[in-house]
Amino acid sequence: MTTNADDGSEGTVELHIGSVSIDCSDPGELADFYAELLGMQRIVETPDGRIVAVSDGTHTLAMMRVDGYVAPSWPQPGQLQQMHFDISVTDLDRAAERALSVGARLAEHQPAPDLWRVFLDPAGHPFCLTTLGA
Description:
The chain is of the alpha+beta class. 16% of the residues lie in helices and 32% in strands. It folds into two domains: 19-68, Signal recognition particle alu RNA binding heterodimer, srp9/1 (2-Layer Sandwich), CATH 3.30.720; 70-134, 2,3-Dihydroxybiphenyl 1,2-Dioxygenase, domain 1 (Roll).
């Protein structure tokens, strides 16, 4: 996205999302999960393993170790979800099989299973597979 600078300077400033960072207790495990699910590769890992990033060349996800991490309890109260991915797919059933085969768990709460299916990644974050937008 290119926007006009609003700080009084001339020209434009370019803004775009560089990556999405996801809190977790085990960055390597979560990075491997999303790499396998979405066809990404590891591009960065800090020497202490606290940050591991994966990319498909266009999108980048960075997993970040958080001491004392607590998985979301959505839809139950407690630790609410902070974000989730809606992953567009052309075949919901086949995509669901793939997600399960790489370590996702089907969430108990399924508000509209004909339009999207809710899963949990290995760190407990909800994500949806959907044919909307595919």
